[in-house]
Amino acid sequence: MRSPDPARTLAAQLADAVPGQHVVLEGHVHRRRELAKVSFLILRDRTGLAQVVLRPDEIPAEGIPTEETVVRIVGVVAANAQAPGGVEVVSPVIEMLSEPARTPIVELWRPSLDATLPTLLDHAAVTWRHPAQRAKWELTAASLRGFRRTLDAAGFTEIHTPKIVDTITESGANVFPVDYFGKTAYLAQSPQFYKQQLVGVFERVYEVGPVFRAEPHDTVRHLAEYRSLDVEFGFIRDHRDVLAQLGEVLGGMLDSICSEGAGALDLLDVALPAIPEEIPVVHFRDALRIVGAPDDEPDLAPAHERALGDWARERYGSDVLAVEGYPMRKRPFYTHPQPDDERWSNSFDLLFRGLELVTGGQRLHRHSDYVSAIEARGESPSAYAAYLDAFAHGMPPHGGFAIGLERWVARLLEASNIREVTLFPRDLHRLTP
Amino acid sequence: MRSPDPARTLAAQLADAVPGQHVVLEGHVHRRRELAKVSFLILRDRTGLAQVVLRPDEIPAEGIPTEETVVRIVGVVAANAQAPGGVEVVSPVIEMLSEPARTPIVELWRPSLDATLPTLLDHAAVTWRHPAQRAKWELTAASLRGFRRTLDAAGFTEIHTPKIVDTITESGANVFPVDYFGKTAYLAQSPQFYKQQLVGVFERVYEVGPVFRAEPHDTVRHLAEYRSLDVEFGFIRDHRDVLAQLGEVLGGMLDSICSEGAGALDLLDVALPAIPEEIPVVHFRDALRIVGAPDDEPDLAPAHERALGDWARERYGSDVLAVEGYPMRKRPFYTHPQPDDERWSNSFDLLFRGLELVTGGQRLHRHSDYVSAIEARGESPSAYAAYLDAFAHGMPPHGGFAIGLERWVARLLEASNIREVTLFPRDLHRLTP
Q1: Which residues in chain A are closer than 8 Å to B405, comparing Cβ atoms?
Q2: What is the tens place of the pLDDT at every residue in B156-193?
Q3: Whole-model pTM?
Q4: A89 and A167 share a domain?
Q5: From the list B176, B235, B432, which residue is nearest A179 (CB)?
Q6: Domain with B62 in it
Q7: Same structural domain for residues A175 and A81?
Q8: What are the pLDDT digits (tens) for B245-276?
Q9: C-alpha dihedral (A313, A318, A320, A322), degrees to nearest 10
């Protein structure tokens, strides 16, 4: 079989090359500096940067290609303590693989990008090439690997469930209608109903996929399409088992980030969060007292969440805090009540650095409880027939959670806007690129 | 921290239990058999089946719970050479975790399901519980792990790209419109444009995600929503490098299936496909001759594909065959032509057991080539402005492929209908469950 990378040396492999060795480098021209006596070309490939040195007689007739031109360079390895990795490439012969590039809208070679967020987003295909931008997504990819690795090891099965659905899962307000062969369908707001049904099949399931929310407000923490890391599993005692599994998963994501994203963490100067093995928990009722809100407040406002984040940091040295027991009347119908006081629920939100990152909890599992809960909200169980079928045929006590992937990375990097860590964000105003 | 599975023994762990040991089992009642002298309850959990034996005085007053009821059983391990794994559980105390189940529409305890496909699909939440159904999806999940593992090891970065888009990628005919905050948007037919742009960022990328095709025909091999395993990477010589990478990926998927899906393979009696390390290749021109089609035929009909599948089996002992060089006029505008004869393309389809499974190839990479190709089709490059931005700023020679996940498993299992291996299929007539 043909080797996919014939004779190519990656930038990160240069440090191991022997001085005098011939190498082939391929990548983008990251930076060129033409000086009187010597010129430099910094090459960027998927593993990093490599320094190429040109004597005046080695410069091509048409000059060193402009930044972002794609080149193939054959040269000789030379030791140079000043060069990145202690090695550079001399006596280069440069071949252009694509025509000289148009001048980028931003100077990608600068250590940090001097551009507004709209500029970054409008030119995403180019601005993500900046090493600091790219590093953000590398942490996202490492998080995904840690998420899956943790759950695979715990006997979970990966599932994929439909994104075009005929019923509205979460609320009627923020749903996108789809013209489905002339009928009206909807984009799934979450895989909630499907992941629960599949607990009856696989007992432990997870899904990584897009979810869609027609958020009518333009905020720094909402997207119209985002990636939800969904987990659901059976044979739990209550929501505290769900929270324990969430702790394992977040720990696994952090482990991957540290082991596979070390370079990106350095480049971005990330302060790693403190996520204790046992996540601290506070009851919603007590959370209201801590932030000085009235006893009958039905939900936590963003300012409350921030205050609780500070409190958890001071009290437990923790960047995460679970608030359990949210009032039943604010939770979806499938939420399991707190057994000793049914005003409260066996559900939780996880605050990460003072912002809601995860919603989770125990669900109802008895068919009769579903019928009552749906009727109590003035709806008809027949509208949920396919979903309820699973419960009519025996379902274990179960629960689960959903992590917003972009939110996780945004808070990890303390980004001021979730769009900074999203490759091609979708929102009220943005449908392209 | 609380242990998530307190004291629970899984069915697969019973074989290692010591006779006389007390165990806690949890799962669904898979089968009950009440005989005069002794009764049996077969318990099903995520790892398999366990046999529980009840003496007449051990049967609960209300009888043994019906099939699919969820139970917790405390009992004692006993050796019995007749039992699965040589071990059974005696002296059981049964606790019902959910109310007795409604009688399932199918008898899940029978070795094979005696039900029509519409019945299986209409009651998917229950019918997927059958061990043979479940095994199909276990092979899907194993395939996904093998796909990612192979690409992670080869330096690829996982990406996630928007599923709501403003332009139509593949063709105007089979697209689903979305009402996007009052504007018309579309569901992505493929991540093609995005994965190419991101080759400029990460050099090697992959995505596992839903794609949407408003297929107006009801066939056994098309779905309106399916999972596409997309790969794209830079610094290739031509489409043959793409094909070599595809071979690695398919090999990795098969490896995972064999190592992690051994039980499922056995249960389903799967004949493993022969996928040679070097995938055999035939040019489109020669493929027409082999199947006896006219020289000017622009595409391969399903009957041609089947004939080529047979030919590859006989000639190479291979279940896969790559047909390269498809006529340019039948390929999308971003396709790279064959350098020595521009009527043909540097693209391929991979036939798996005589059915198209993968489309791939080399793409154009020069900005000027894109402008010409788009204009030659009578379109305006300005309609592709965001996409073309990447090429205006230097893109390496690149290519990639897309594998249809459900099609892969359907052909692996020689299923007669792709819906047999899809958890909750979507098609012209099916939007629920």
Answers
A1: 160
A2: 999 999 999 998 766 667 999 999 999 999 999 999 99
A3: 0.97
A4: no
A5: B176
A6: 11-96
A7: no
A8: 999 999 999 999 999 999 999 999 999 999 99
A9: -90
